[in-house]
């Protein structure tokens, strides 16, 4: 059985509205206690449009007890309207994202709600959706019983009880209902209903747009969003555009028909009254402008998606003041993906230089030599970029016997890939787990090479070279690894002398014995 989703301890947890496939507008749920109003006073729910998404605020349902009253009371933090799938998907649609969060209202006594169970009845979806089992709850036909257990005061939990599957022949706006009732041993029962609707057409974007490279901090570039309606349904409610820029990029042209995530936004949501016709394609009548605002940003991306149900998502409170963005007809060629995406590379570099040391010791010694690289910046890798490597060719007259590493509670003998042929390079990819314990972004990443000195070689030098795709200063990428080998101490040869002397004595004894045998009696 899958694990439930824990709702954070707060009045309106975000887990009440979780991202769902092809989701559009949602409103706060109308939830009523299944008890007489004289016992539990009802409070009218507030209505606030939102998109069902992970960062949207939870709907605030009807309270069933006054805050701090001391009584244990529960409420649902569900949504009033939920879009199950798009009409054009038909029987191919599948959506497991509908959740039923139950919250225990904070009270003075702090007592938990005990033995909480929720019964979800999806029989009202007949004709608009098929219902499947997510294996989180016990299913009996279209009725699902979910055991939430004990829920702490001021806390909650959420299950996804059913899988929604599409049916053919539906139209946008077709709908049904799901009802649910929560009971507990020590709290009044509550019940709620969500209207489950079939959404409008899915709208397509071009996919990968032309990449932008060499963009300097403070400089701007632009992209013109395009869409196509490849379905048989018109977008009767108009269309909406959602734009997101990654960290270090900021949307810098603010249009009056767009709402933004703050005054220096990385996300925008724009609406258009255009009822995108079946088979038609459109483009924005002005480009969206974005600027590199992160001085250490190496790469980024701008993505955008289209929706046929214009309902503003949470987290976009600032309305633009510039000229409105419009749509114009355009050819549909090349528009057939779920999103548009522009990959951005800046001219900021991450300069690596080698960390080297001398292989110093006597012949026969195995010494530890710390080798690696130093990150001089100024750029900083965010985790999406490949951090690069260093390559070590040991000096002539030596042998690398191991490059040991530790990772969590484990470890190994070779942190670097060994060369296939003698004289080749040991390749050390610092993004691997083997370097997790010693990697320091913006600092030094180095590890001990265990090197045996086999013999003295005058002037022998190995090399260490750093490599990363954002290093634009090649002059300091290579350094030498000198060999300073002294003769082995005399005691290391004592065994050889003793063995040689013993061999001479034994050989003399053998010869003497042979002569005696050969002498005439």
Furnish the topology, listing elements before pairings.
Blueprint: E1 5-7, E2 25-26, E3 30-33, E4 50-51, E5 74-76, E6 81-86, E7 94-95, E8 100-104, E9 113-121, E10 130-133, E11 138-140, E12 143-151, E13 156-159, E14 162-165, E15 175-184, E16 187-199, E17 207-208, E18 212-215, E19 220-223, E20 226-228, E21 239-245, E22 249-251, E23 258-260, E24 267-272, E25 281-284, E26 288-292, E27 299-307, E28 318-319, E29 327-329, E30 340-346, E31 350-355, E32 359-362, E33 366-378, E34 389-393, E35 398-402, E36 405-407, E37 410-412, E38 426-429, E39 444-453, E40 461-467, E41 478-486, H1 491-518
Parallel strand pairs: 6-16, 17-30, 18-30, 32-41
Antiparallel strand pairs: 1-13, 2-4, 3-16, 5-8, 7-14, 8-13, 9-12, 9-15, 10-14, 11-12, 15-16, 19-26, 20-25, 21-24, 21-27, 22-26, 23-24, 23-28, 25-29, 27-30, 31-33, 33-39, 34-38, 34-40, 35-39, 36-37, 40-41
Overview of this protein structure:
With 521 residues, the protein is mostly beta strands. The protein has one helix and 41 strands. It starts with a strand and ends with a helix. The model is unreliable at 6-69 (pLDDT under 50).
Radius of gyration: 35 Å
Count of strand segments: 41
Range of helix content: under 10%
Give the averaged pLDDT, no decimals: 84
* DSSP strand content: 35-45%
Count of runs of 4 or more consecutive helical residues: 1
Give the biggest sheet: 8 strands, mixed
Shape: elongated
Given helix and strand content, the structural type is mainly beta
Instruction: List low-confidence stretches.
Output: 6-69
Q: In angstroms, what separates the terminal alpha carbons?
A: 99 Å
Keywords: Membrane, Transmembrane, Transmembrane helix
């Amino acid at each position: 059985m899958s694990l439930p989703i824990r709702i954070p301890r707060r009045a309106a947890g975000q887990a009440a509205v979780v991202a769902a496939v092809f989701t559009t507008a949602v409103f706060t749920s109308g939830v009523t206690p299944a008890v007489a109003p004289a016992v539990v006073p009802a409070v009218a729910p507030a209505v606030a449009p939102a998109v069902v998404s992970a960062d949207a605020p939870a709907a605030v349902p009807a309270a069933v007890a006054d805050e701090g009253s001391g009584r244990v009371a529960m409420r649902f933090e569900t949504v009033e309207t939920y879009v199950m799938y798009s009409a054009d998907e038909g029987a191919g649609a599948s959506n497991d994202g509908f959740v039923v969060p139950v919250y225990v209202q904070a009270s003075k006594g702090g007592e938990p709600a005990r033995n909480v169970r929720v019964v979800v009845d999806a029989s009202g979806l007949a004709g608009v959706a098929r219902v499947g089992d997510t294996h989180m709850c016990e299913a009996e036909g279209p009725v699902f019983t979910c055991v939430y257990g004990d829920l702490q005061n001021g806390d909650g939990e959420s299950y996804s009880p059913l899988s929604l599957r599409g049916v053919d022949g539906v139209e946008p706006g077709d709908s049904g209902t799901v009802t649910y009732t929560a009971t507990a041993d020590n709290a009044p029962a509550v019940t709620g209903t969500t209207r489950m609707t079939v959404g409008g057409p899915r709208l397509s974007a071009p996919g990968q747009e032309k990449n932008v490279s060499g963009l300097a901090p403070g400089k701007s570039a632009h992209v013109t969003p395009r869409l196509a309606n490849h379905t048989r349904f018109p977008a009767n409610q108009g269309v909406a555009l959602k734009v997101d820029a990654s960290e270090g990029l900021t949307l810098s042209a603010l249009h009056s028909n767009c709402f933004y995530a703050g005054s220096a936004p990385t996300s925008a949501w724009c609406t258009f009254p255009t009822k995108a016709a079946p088979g038609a394609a459109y483009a924005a009548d002005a480009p969206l402008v974005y600027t590199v605002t992160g001085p250490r940003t190496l790469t980024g991306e701008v993505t955008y998606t289209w929706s046929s149900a214009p309902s503003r998502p949470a987290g976009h409170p600032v309305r633009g003041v510039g000229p409105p963005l419009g749509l114009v007809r355009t050819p549909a060629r090349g528009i057939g993906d779920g999103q548009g995406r522009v990959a951005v590379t800046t001219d900021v570099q991450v300069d690596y230089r080698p960390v080297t040391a001398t292989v110093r010791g006597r012949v026969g010694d195995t010494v530890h030599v710390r080798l690696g690289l130093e990150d001089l910046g100024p750029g900083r890798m965010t985790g999406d970029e490949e951090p690069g490597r260093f390559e070590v060719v040991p000096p002539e007259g030596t042998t690398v016997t191991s490059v040991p590493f530790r990772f969590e509670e484990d470890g190994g003998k070779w942190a670097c890939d060994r060369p296939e042929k003698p004289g080749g390079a040991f390749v050390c990819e610092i993004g691997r787990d083997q370097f997790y314990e010693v990697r320091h972004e913006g600092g030094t990443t180095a590890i001990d090479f265990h090197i045996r000195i086999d013999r003295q070689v005058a002037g022998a030098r190995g090399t260490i070279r750093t490599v990363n795709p954002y290093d634009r200063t090649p002059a300091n990428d290579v350094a030498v690894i000198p060999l300073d080998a002294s003769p082995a101490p005399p005691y290391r040869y004592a065994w050889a002398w003793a063995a040689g002397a013993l061999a001479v004595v034994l050989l003399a004894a053998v010869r003497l014995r042979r002569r005696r045998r050969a002498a005439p009696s």
